[in-house]
Amino acid sequence: MSKQQAISPGKNFFAGGFGGVCLVFAGHPLDTIKVRIQTMPVPGPGESPLYRGTFDCFKQTLAKEGFKGLYKGMAAPIIGVTPMFAVCFFGFGLGKKLQQKTPDDVLTYPQLFAAGMLSGVFTTAIMAPGERIKCLLQIQAAKGEVKYAGPMDCVKQLYKENGIRGIYRGTALTLMRDVPASGMYFMTYEWLKRLLTPEGKSPNELSVPSVLFAGGMAGIFNWAVAIPPDVLKSRYQTAPEGMYPNGFRDVLRELLREEGVASLYKGFTAVMLRAFPANAACFLGFEMAMKFLNWAAPSL
C-alpha cells in the first residue's frame, strides 16, 4: 500500500469548509421539506394533515412559493455550515492525530468513531444557533407569517426576547444528535474508502464515483442514528417560549403520547433522499480541496 498522507487538522479545516458549501447547495431543498414535515401541526379529528408526505410537501412548496421556497433559510446554513464543516473536519483530523503514535499509524474503526464523536462536540457551538435560525425561517414561510425578515433579524429578535439562551435553545439536543451521528459518519466513510480501495493503492487515490458512493453512504448511516434526536430538536427549537418547561423530555413525552414511536422518524424519506447526494457532494468537495491543498502546500 502507498504511504498514507500525514494528517493535517489545518488542511482538514479549509477542505471541510469547502465540503460544507457543496453540501448546502446539494441538500438544502430536502432539508426544508424535512423541517416542515417534522414541525407540521397534528391534524384535528376529521382534518387532513398539512402534508401527506415528502412529495406532497415538495409539490405544495413549489406551487405556493416557487423554486425559491425550497431554498428558504439557506443564508443561515451557508454562513454557519462553512465554518461548521471546517470545524467538524478539523475536529476529526485532530481526533485522529491525537490517537496516532506515529504519522504512519492506521487507526482502528473504534478510534475513527471516537475521532468522529470529537468532531460532533466541536461543531455544536456553531450548529445549535444555526439550526435554530434555519428551522424558524423554514417554518415561518410554510405558515405564511413573516415574523423574521432574515437570519440577522431572527438573531436580533431572539436575543432581545431571551438573551443568548434564546439563540442557543436546543444545544443539548444538538449534542445528543451530533456526537454519536458524527462518529458513525466518519467511521462509515473511512470504512467504505478502505473497502473500495484497489489492492496496492492508497485510499487517497479513490475515483470520483467511489468517493461519491462512500460519502453518500456515510450520510445515510449518519442520519440513521441522528433522526430521532433531530425530530425532538426541530420541535423544541421551533416551539413557542415556555411550551416545554422540562426541555426535550416534554417534547419526547408529547410526541410518544400523541403520535407514537413512529413520530421519531418523521421526515425519514426527505432525510434519506437528501443524505446521499448532499454528503456525496460534501466529501467530493472535501477530497478535491484536500488534493489541491496537498499540491499547493505539501509541507503543511
Automatic annotation (TrEMBL):
<dbReference type="GO" id="GO:1902603">
    <property type="term" value="P:carnitine transmembrane transport"/>
</dbReference>
<keyword id="KW-0472">Membrane</keyword>
<feature type="repeat" description="Solcar">
    <location>
        <begin position="206"/>
        <end position="292"/>
    </location>
</feature>
<feature type="repeat" description="Solcar">
    <location>
        <begin position="107"/>
        <end position="195"/>
    </location>
</feature>
<comment type="function">
    <text>Mediates the electroneutral exchange of acylcarnitines (O-acyl-(R)-carnitine or L-acylcarnitine) of different acyl chain lengths (ranging from O-acetyl-(R)-carnitine to long-chain O-acyl-(R)-carnitines) with free carnitine ((R)-carnitine or L-carnitine) across the mitochondrial inner membrane, via a ping-pong mechanism. Key player in the mitochondrial oxidation pathway, it translocates the fatty acids in the form of acylcarnitines into the mitochondrial matrix, where the carnitine palmitoyltransferase 2 (CPT-2) activates them to undergo fatty acid beta-oxidation.</text>
</comment>
<dbReference type="GO" id="GO:0015227">
    <property type="term" value="F:O-acyl-L-carnitine transmembrane transporter activity"/>
</dbReference>
<comment type="similarity">
    <text>Belongs to the mitochondrial carrier (TC 2.A.29) family.</text>
</comment>
<feature type="repeat" description="Solcar">
    <location>
        <begin position="7"/>
        <end position="98"/>
    </location>
</feature>
<dbReference type="Pfam" id="PF00153">
    <property type="entry name" value="Mito_carr"/>
</dbReference>
<dbReference type="InterPro" id="IPR018108">
    <property type="entry name" value="MCP_transmembrane"/>
</dbReference>
<keyword id="KW-0812">Transmembrane</keyword>
<feature type="transmembrane region" description="Helical">
    <location>
        <begin position="12"/>
        <end position="30"/>
    </location>
</feature>
<keyword id="KW-0677">Repeat</keyword>
<keyword id="KW-0813">Transport</keyword>
<keyword id="KW-0496">Mitochondrion</keyword>
<dbReference type="GO" id="GO:0006839">
    <property type="term" value="P:mitochondrial transport"/>
</dbReference>
<protein>
    <recommendedName>
        <fullName>Mitochondrial carnitine/acylcarnitine carrier protein</fullName>
    </recommendedName>
</protein>
<keyword id="KW-1133">Transmembrane helix</keyword>
<dbReference type="InterPro" id="IPR023395">
    <property type="entry name" value="MCP_dom_sf"/>
</dbReference>
<feature type="transmembrane region" description="Helical">
    <location>
        <begin position="74"/>
        <end position="94"/>
    </location>
</feature>
<dbReference type="InterPro" id="IPR050567">
    <property type="entry name" value="Mitochondrial_Carrier"/>
</dbReference>
<feature type="transmembrane region" description="Helical">
    <location>
        <begin position="106"/>
        <end position="128"/>
    </location>
</feature>
<dbReference type="GO" id="GO:0031966">
    <property type="term" value="C:mitochondrial membrane"/>
</dbReference>
